[in-house]
Amino acid sequence: MKKLRVDIWSDIACPWCYIGKRRFETALGEFAGRSQVEVIWRAFELDPAAPRIRDKSSPYAARLARKYGVTVGRAEAMLGHMTDVAASEGIELHFDRIQSGNTFDAHRLLHLAGERGKQAALKERLLRAYFTEGEPIGEPDALVRLAADVGLDAEEVTATLASDALTREVRADEDQARRLGIHGVPFFVFAGRYGVSGAQVPEMLLQVLERTHEESCASVDFVDGAACGPEDCA
After folding, report:
1. Where are the beta strands (DSSP E) in 37-95?
2. 90, 143, 190, 219: which could form a disulfide with 194 (CB 3.0–4.6 Å)?
3. How far is it, in rounded angstroms, from Cα 69 to Cα 129?
4. What are the tens digits of pLDDT across the range 194-209?
């Protein structure tokens, strides 16, 4: 049976992407055809110009306030809301531990992990490392250690990070996102046909899975007409 492919654009430094991932997993767990679903994580950088590691002296809430032009109090309220929502999905967000940085290399490693059959495991490990454990995912040493945690070869990961390997693949994901008009993440594309923006509730994601699956398995009505077969054309 043909796989039902779900492409998901997201960034490591995105709390709603973490929440959206967990909600999608909940929906997938309730989907009868889950064994036939292929999930591909696509690269999206929320801040491509970010340094490898930001200045740690500035609290996360203060940086968020500057980014969105709100007060620090408002930013702290936003973080509190996201923390509560994440907790309802079984995720711990510790914004006070976050070491913000550039995520481009992390996306390169996710492509490598995809080639080694470990993409889902690395995606989860990176998100937990960033949001729960406060790991500096912009630093190569941290990335090598985290990739090794899910079974990737440390020497291969080190060599990948020291080169420009998989740069083209990350850029291709980002180019495709632009062509699709994706401006925010997470963004889900089901079977190349249906796009869903944001960390939607599991019930909604399950409905899209079921609808897409039903359409792909729909019977075909045949109408006789001129055609060529093994024996002749009639």
Report:
1. 37-43
2. 190
3. 28
4. 999 999 999 999 999 9
